[in-house]
Amino acid sequence: MNSRLIIVNIIRWFILLFVQIFLLKNMGFYDLSTPFIYVLFILLLPFGIPNILLYALAFATGLTLDAFYDTMGVHATACIVMSFVRISFISISLNRDAIDDPEPSLSYMGFQWFALYALLCVLSHHLVLFFLETFRLTEISYTLMRCGLSCIFTLLIILLVEFIFYKRTSR
User: Fold this and answer.
1) Which of 2, 113, 119, 154 shows a CA-CA span of 20 to 30 A to 144?
2) Residue 153 contacts residue 128 (beta carbons within 8 Å)
3) What is the mean pLDDT of residues 105-120?
4) Percentage of the residues of the chain whose pLDDT score is greater than 70
5) Of 49-58, 62-71, 93-102, 145-154, which gets the smallest average pLDDT?
């Protein structure tokens, strides 16, 4: 990884966590839908990042959010699970040796691949997050509804951000 890529990801980490903590923390719709834009940092990490570094960054990101949300490891666990899903999806859908693109973004990978990638990662993150937050099966329908609505809301924001910073590439 070159130094420009490292600096871009550090800035991205600070901006996404700042937006999540100070703007989106109290933004929710009747306690049913909460956007979690910070997952975009883990989604957009480069393909060539070692798995142990990916897990460490995901854990640090989740732990930072846990410190501000007072959730005692729920976000850290959800970020670790999302990192596992990310690694699995990339290894199944792409040949890692033939990847020339620096990161899994909308502009490099295309809408269909990125949308499926983001959906699977965000869905796994939200399922773990909301089930650990509730931690009881008596409210399974409410938890699944919260998970679904938050997933849709988060995906819309992620796709909106990706379209704002979309760079057309020639293939």
Assistant:
1) 113
2) no
3) 88
4) 93
5) 93-102
Angstrom distance (rounded) from CA 157 to CA 137: 29
Residue 152 has pLDDT above 90, yes or no: yes
CB within 8 Å of 139: residues ≥ 6 apart: none
DSSP letter string over the chain? --HHHHHHHHHHHHHHHHHHHHTSTT--BTTTB---TTHHHHHTS-TTS-HHHHHHHHHHHHHHHHHHHT-TTHHHHHHHHHHHHHHHHHHHHS-GGG---SS--HHHH-HHHHHHHHHHHHHHHHHHHHHHHH--GGGHHHHHHHHHHHHHHHHHHHHHHHHHT------
Q: Model pTM?
A: 0.90
